[in-house]
Write a structure and sequence with these properties.
single chain; alpha/beta; 8 strands; globular
Length: 165
């Protein structure tokens, strides 16, 4: 009988375990299957609006003033609107080439869980996710996510809601 391969937990999953927050580990293989992440979500019966991407922003041209915005995959971000809501002169996308140095994660693996605990950057969520009981965010590894209670996650990372579009 073949042994079942045990998947090693990510740091983010360990943080959820430590805080007694239930989650479901989800692996996406959409690139290898020639699909988009949205198509794979729909094929799995998951509302794509409940799957969030994590965007790292730099405020006021200050390379020490970062913030994180989480929004559904299919939505775009309005940088001027976010800057106005947060009282910032301007915000722009952090340089993808510097993400590993800024957050500790590569592009596609940024997660509000790890960033909140390791960097203590402010975390903001698109207010439209309030309608979902469960949401998915990166588990800190490309192609791997956790599906978790939306309110529990926002509370865990001391997140706030705002209009992103």
């Amino acid at each position: 009988m073949a042994k079942k391969k045990k998947i090693k937990k990510t740091n983010e999953e360990r943080i959820l375990d430590q805080h007694h927050i239930e989650y479901q580990e989800v692996s996406f293989d959409w690139l290898n299957q020639g699909m988009t992440a949205l198509a794979e979500a729909q094929a799995a019966g998951v509302d794509p609006k409940s799957i969030l991407k994590t965007i790292v922003l730099e405020a006021n041209g200050d390379d020490h003033d970062y913030l994180v915005v989480c929004l559904p995959l299919e939505y775009e971000i309005d940088l001027k609107k976010i800057a106005a809501q947060l009282g910032k002169k301007q915000v722009h996308l952090a340089d993808n080439k510097k993400l590993i140095n800024i957050t500790g994660y590569v592009h596609g693996a940024n997660t509000p869980i790890g960033i909140s605990f390791a960097k203590d950057f402010p975390i903001y969520f698109d207010q439209r996710i309030k309608s979902f009981a469960q949401i998915s965010v990166s588990a800190g590894k490309v192609g791997r996510s956790v599906r978790v209670d939306q309110r529990a996650l926002v509370q865990l990372v001391k997140g706030k809601y705002l209009e992103v579009q």
